[in-house]
Amino acid sequence: MADASGFNAWHADVARSPSCNLIFQEALGLPSEVVSNSLLSWAAIAEVAAALRVTPGHILVDLACGRGGYSREVARRTGARLVGLDYSAVAVAIAARGGQGDHAWFCVADFTALGLRDHSAHAVMCIDAVQFSDPPLAALRECRRILADGGRLAVTAWEPVGPVDERLPERTRRMNLARDLAAAGFEQIKVTGKPDWYADERRLWESAVQADANGDPALVALQQEGTRALATFDVKRRVFATATAPVSRKRNKA
Question: Does residue 228 belong to any structural domain of this protein?
Fold first, then answer.
């Protein structure tokens, strides 16, 4: 498993930062009770929930769940049973404070070793994190492994626009979800640019860099990330990918 120390520090710091949480809430339109894991707005969460097509009792896996805010909201809307997985033990501990039990369960796991049985999930969501898998294709194959026949996958990420700009991190330069989802064995693949989501993201970064950090380590880190993101904002795009696990003819006959 990759070193999670940086993510552990971030999750611990942001959990103690009212300033950071307020910036996320105002820029993304989130209610105060919904913990932000990354950069999805309130409207974007609704799109993800609809795309997953889960119903009450279905098992929803949130890969790289962070502090669990987004997937808890999706589960609340759909009635799904939630399994949240993240390689940050700090994030998992925070997510679990909202309750573990029959309807929500959080555990430490790696992108390529989820610890779940084959075909055990009805849907998988992975929000703004698949680029941290090395390579992303490995994580998508693991998602394909755990999905039941006809199960749905929803992934959000960033991809380069036009000629790849060397200022982008390597993890962003290599992103191509249409290619990798096909290679992982998915069907009904759809990758959509989301300029409205990206506008919300710009608003968040601009609010962060203009704020007075006043020694807040989470806000300092957010400002640093925002400065980097804004410098390359126009050479990447925000994308939302959905795909379906094919129905196995062998299992269908059985």
Answer: yes
